[in-house]
Amino acid sequence: MWTARASARTAALLLCVLCYLLAGAAVFDALESEAESGRRRLLAQKRGEFRRRFGFSAEDYRELERLARQAEPHRAGRQWRFAGSFYFAITVITTIGYGHTVPGTDSGKVFCMFYALLGIPLTLVTFQSLGERLNALVRCLLLGAKRCLGLRRPHVSTENMVVAGLLACAATLALGAATFSHFEGWSFFHAYYYCFITLTTIGFGDFVALQSEEALQRTPPYVAFSFLYILLGLTVIGAFLNLVVLRFLAASAEGPQRAARLAGSLHRAAPESHARPRGGDAGPAGSICSSCRRIRQLERCARDNLGFSPPSSPVAVCGSRADRPRARSI
Predict the structure, then answer these.
(1) Domain contains 11
(2) Does the chain have fewer CB atoms within 10 Å around its N or its C terminus?
(3) Taking phi first (over 0 means left), then psi (-120 to 50 degrees means alpha), and beta for anything else, what does residue 303 get?
(4) Is there a domain that residue 21 lies in?
(5) CA 249/CA 295 separation, integer angstroms
(6) How far apart, in whole angstroms, are the C-alpha atoms of residue 146 and residue 166?
(7) Does residue 220 lie within any of the structural domains?
């Protein structure tokens, strides 16, 4: 029964993702298509004016465009000195991948692939551990705040943690936006957009810090801030996303909880003299055990990985009762 339910849930999730993609495509089409057509018309007009003014052929103009694209990354100075290489390494192991700088040699491309194979899992584990410690710290702060408010039995719920994480994310993005808008000359909105795209590891590359006026060599304090901001910001965003995932998992378990509570009621109403079903998962007791294992896994995930313990669910209590040895009838 639970296998069929899990398959139906997976199919429903796939359908939701497909619908979400279709809706996103429709919205982006409506928002960007006309603007793109306008930019293409303007570019064609400027291209024609440029060719007429300087007498370039179509081939000459294409060569000039190619050279301009190749020269773009070098506005920041020497990209493959230590500071620029460190920046590139960050974008590799965090999977941000702006695309502003890429290896130019075959040996560099080969090393990049092997470097990513080891670096990406190592980075994921590290940020997971940092996120656990951060969530534990936030939980302690929330407990202290509730005690200061005079609550006798303060408890930090998943919703409390999600709200606190959302506020921490907003503050982190705002701090980065204020700093990058000052140093890069961007508007606050564009700087906020850059921080969001960076810390969610989307990394379009349309806005990239440290890419003007040889910033990598001339402004060491700003370079250090940029590196630290990316690493610490990824920790904050990752911890928050872990909380959101846990909340979705808990919500997806509510259906099995209700079914297990009903099965548990039927099981407790059965006469004590009836023989207990054998085979583990047969009958209502098996349904209870299956659901209880699912809920206990979620609670263990919250306690071990996210630094706080959710309240005991009725199913867990029911499961603990169902697992107790029963006195044999005489």
Answers:
(1) no
(2) C
(3) alpha
(4) no
(5) 10
(6) 19
(7) yes
DSSP 76: G
Residues in the chain: 330
Could you tell me the residue range of the domain that residue 207 belongs to?
A: 126-265
The answer to whether the CB of 306 falls within 8 A of the CB of 135 is yes
Integer Cα distance of 276 and 172 in angstroms: 56
Give the DSSP letter string of 208-254.
-SS-STTHHHH-HHHHHHHHHHHHHHHHHHHHHHHHHHHHHHHHHTH
The number of domains in the chain is 1
Two structure tokens written together for 79? 């990209």
Q: What is the mean pLDDT of each run of 10 residues along the chain (330 residues)?
A: 79 94 97 94 90 85 84 76 93 93 94 97 93 91 90 84 94 97 96 97 94 86 96 94 82 61 54 46 51 62 55 47 45
- Spell 13-27 as b/e; 16+ CB within 10 A means b: eeeeeeeeeeeeeee
Tell me the one-letter amino acid at 65. Answer: E
d(CA 9, CA 15) in angstroms, rounded, equals 10
DSSP H helices in the chain: 2-54, 58-71, 82-93, 106-148, 158-184, 188-199, 215-218, 220-252, 254-269, 283-305, 314-323
Sign of CA dihedral 41, 43, 46, 50: negative
CATH code of 161's domain: 1.10.287.70
CA 14 to the chain's CA centroid: 19
Model pLDDT for residues 257-291, shown as the tens digit of each residue: 655 565 555 455 554 444 444 444 445 445 455 55
- The two most distant CA atoms of the chain are separated, in Å, by 107
Rg (CA), the chain: 28
Is 104 a member of any domain?
no
CA distance readout (Å), 190 to 35, 88, 197, 228, 313 = 18, 22, 10, 20, 44
Q: How many CA atoms lie within 13 A of 129 on its CB side?
A: 5
